[in-house]
Structure formats: C-alpha cells, structure tokens
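Example with several molecule types.
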Amino acid sequence: MKCYHCGTQLSGGTTCPKCGADVSAYKAAVYASNAYYNRGLEKAQVRDLTGAVESLRTSLMYNKNNIKARNLLALIYCEMGDVVEALSEWVISKNIKPEKNIAGSYITRIQSNQAKFEATTQNIKKFNVALAAAKDGNTDIAVIQLKKVTTQNPKFIKAQLLLALLYMQEREFGRARKCLNTVLKSDVNNTFARRYLRELKGFESSKSNEAQDSFLPKHRQKNIESQPLNGNDVIMPHSSYKEPSNGAITIINILVGALIGAALIWFLITPARYKGLTNDYNQSILEYSEKLSNGNAELNSLTKQLQDVTAERDALNEKLQSISGVDGNNKLLTAVIDAANAYIANEPTKAAKYLVDIDVSALPSDNAKSLYNTIAAATTATAANELYNTGYSNYAKGKYSQAVEDLTVAYKLDSTKVDAAYYSAKAYVALDQVDNAKKYYQYIVTNFPTSRYISEATTYVSTH
Amino acid sequence: MIDFDEEIKKFQPSLEVEDAEDAIYNKDMPDITDIIGKILADADKSNS
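Resulting structure tokens for the full complex:
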C-alpha cells in the first residue's frame, strides 16, 4: 500500500514514514475495498454474478485503483454478455497499471479475434434495438430480435431477462420459464430472474385454482404444443407407415431388394460401362489413325522435298560438269585455249572446230570472250568452206558418216550456208536417220524459203 | 403481478463500441480514497 500523498510504501503505522500524513482513514478505505473484493470473488466462484458485480462495484467505490477488483468485474461483465463494458474496465485497469496486469492479455485475446468481437458487438446492438422496440410497444419486433440475440449468445443475461419479460407479457409462460432458467444457470442468484420466477409461479397457481373452482369438466392442462403456432414451430405430419410384424417378410423384402439392385446393376450400369469402354477404345483408334495419317503426309512431304533437292543437286552437278572439265579445269576456257593454239599453228579449221560448241556468253571473262571473237572472226568463214568441201566430197563418195560430221559443223559455223544444211539432210537420209534429216530439212524450210531446195525439204518434212 | 411498463424501464441499453471511449473517460470519478485525501489535505491547509 502506498501513501495517497507522496506515494511512499506505507508501513504498519497510521502516518506516512516520509511525509507524515495521516493514513489511518486511507488504510481503512483500502482495507474495505479489499474486503469487498474478497466478497465479490467468493460470489463469483459460486456463480452469483449479480452479487459479485455489486460487491466489486462497492470495492471500486472505496478504491478505484483496486486492479484485481476491476479485472474481476470486467470478467463478470464479459460472462454476462456485456463485452464492451468488460473491455472498458480492462482498458482502465491497463491504464492504471500498465505492467504485470492480466487485463493486457484479455484485451489482446479480444483483439486477436476480430470476427468474433464484431459479431458480439452486433449482438449488443441488436439487443439495444430490441430494448427500444419493447419500450415503444413493438413487442413482436423485440421478441424476434431477442431470439436472435439469445440464440447467438445464450449467456447474455439482460437479453434473456428482457425476452422472459416479454414472453410473460404475451402469457407464454413456458418460454419465459425457459429463459429464466437459462439465466439462473449462468447467474444463480439473479434478482430479476428470481423475482420473475416467483411471479410466474404465482400466476400458474392462481390459474390452476381457477380451473379447480370451475363448474365445467376438467380438461387436461394444455402443454406448450396446444398453444397457438408461431413462425418458429415445425409441424410434423403423422405417418401411416407401420413396420411389418413378421421377421420372415422382412428377410424376403431384403432379398427382393438385393435382387432388384443386382438386376439394375446388370441391365443399366454394366452396359453403360462397356459402352463407355468401347467409346474410349474407338476414340483411341481414331486418334492413332489420325496421328498415322499425319505421319504419312509428313513422310510424303519429306520424300517430295528430298526428290526436289536431289533433282536440284543433279542439275547443279550437270551445270558444273558443263562448265568444268573432267579433271576440274574450265572446259570452255580449255576449248578457247585449244582453239588459240590451233590458230597459232595455222590450222584454222581445227581452231574453228574447237570454237563451234562454245557459247560465247558463258565464257567467264571478257578477255576470253575477246580471244574467242578474234579467233572466230579469223577462222569461221575459211573453216566453213573447207569443211563443206570435205563433207560434200565424202557425200559424193558415199562416205555419209564422215560427210555428216563435216557438213553439220560447216552449217554451224556459217548458218547462211544452205548447201551445207541440204547435204547434211541428204547424208542423214542416206544413213536412215530420219529425225536428224528432218531437222536439217526444217532449217531449210524455215530459214531459206526461197532456195532451190525448198520443195524437196517441204515434201520431206510433211511426209516424215 | 409484474407491471411490465415499470419493469422495462429498469432495463438499460448495453454499452456499444462507439460509446466505449466516453464511458472510459466518464468513469474517472473520485473514490473514497480521493475524498479522504482531499479532506485531509484541506485540514492540513486550514491548520497551517
């Protein structure tokens, strides 16, 4: 105990050892507060909550700093449903003694479960609404609200008492008694509940006396089921079903039921199951067929690509072969060089033969083209005449093969030489090479329409 | 018999969260120890 004046710890004397203040009355007040706290604690331990609240309030009236009394009072408020009231007391307690105070743990516990706290405060609001409705005479609304409140928190003493009072007003004594008994389970000595119960008993006894004094035949006392129905009552229809008395019939019924069940499984479930399996199987086959067909299509596509690539490769090889010699040298350049050598060796016909199959535009360099043109200009005409003469001589001698070689080259060297074409065709005719003969007759028909060989050429082309 | 109107007047609304702060401040009323302290303090002043 500390001095009210200077806060010094007091000893057993009646004055403060530090400031000398008279603390006898102060000590008496603190002792009284503690005594009321003890009384409140005893009442709380036997669930006399109302009595405990009175004692603890008295204790706090003597000494508002009695932390134990305040905390216990808050706990009892909480038990009675007044959670906000309890929280207020704990907050005050914590404010007076911030350290080593159990009120802190209570506050933390409430704050940690916000959802429950919210529901509880909503319940309190509903009670206040119901109380206002009851005071305004709206008993039905008040009863509905209070039913909700007491369902959610049956230990809400004030709500149960108010609901009991309303039931008593509505003369629903059974329900009122139930509410009052609930109150007394939580608060065994609740003054209101005791008084209401006493009134209830008095009313019921007077009612039974009235019934005894009546001249009318006595009826059995109506229980709660005979009272008018309200929204919460459930009507249970009377069933006409009766259990069979014979055990054998029961067994037969069970067997018949089992047979019907087996038949249902056999005729309904099994086919459906098989059908499902078949469908799955068919679906799998369909999927695999589709994959196979896609694979085949892809294979065909790849085969076609391979063929194209192979053909392209062959064409390129052929082109390369036409450009390059067997030993890898450039065939065209080699031919030009050979022609140049023959020309230098004063063999114009031989030089012209080298040049006859060369495509000048395919030569790789301007120097090669220039060389080609120089040799061709110097040798072509001379070689064409010489080859024509040689060829014609062989033709006349009946040496058609040698004649063809020279005459065709002569025509290639000089395309104006219609005689070379004509005797080439004639030599082919003699060699019985119709296609080659027709080709050279066609040259005459196309390129030399006014020549003297035109009628013979036209006749051969048209008849072969 | 219970007078309903009289009985219902005895019921007071429960404290709601919105009113908790005011309730906490209003509860800071003097107790007997405060009163005793004040009386003794006044007596000391008058003696001096």
